[in-house]
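2024-03-11 09:14:02 DEBUG pipeline.ingest accepted 1 chain
2024-03-11 09:14:02 DEBUG pipeline.ingest length=155
2024-03-11 09:14:03 DEBUG pipeline.predict start
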Amino acid sequence: MQGILMALVGTPGVYATVLKKTSEINKNLFVTASSSLGGSKVHIITKHIFPYVKGNLSVLFVKEIILVLGLIGQLGIFDTFLGGTIKRETPPYIHISETHEWAGIVGQWRGFIYGSQWILFFPLCAYIVLLLGFYLISRGLEQKQRKTFYKVPYL
């Protein structure tokens, strides 16, 4: 259910971005020339549009991963865990993550920040390093794409 919800939240932004980039590429002369020479829609998409959108899709995919991980972390703070939540009925009344993922552990043990910080510190550091790693991957992909498309500025 949560996966479906996150897909529904993320799909409109991805759709709008891909649609905008595709409509920009469709205005180029090489696409017009290909269609006037009798190129089919499949040919135009595979040979002309997809090579330009491919780099943007990879960057967009990594950025969506970062956004989803941030959303999972925020849900963990509010005791809604990705794999499911077990509500303990006996004191202390706490919510426990069924899958014990990092965001769930951070959300589950956030009350220990005043007493035993190490319980919260290590999963939080691992989660931050994971987010930082995906951020650096997205930056690298953006720089590679920028370098590839701006080699020859007059094309």
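2024-03-11 09:14:41 DEBUG pipeline.report The first helix runs from residue 2 to 26.
2024-03-11 09:14:41 DEBUG pipeline.predict end
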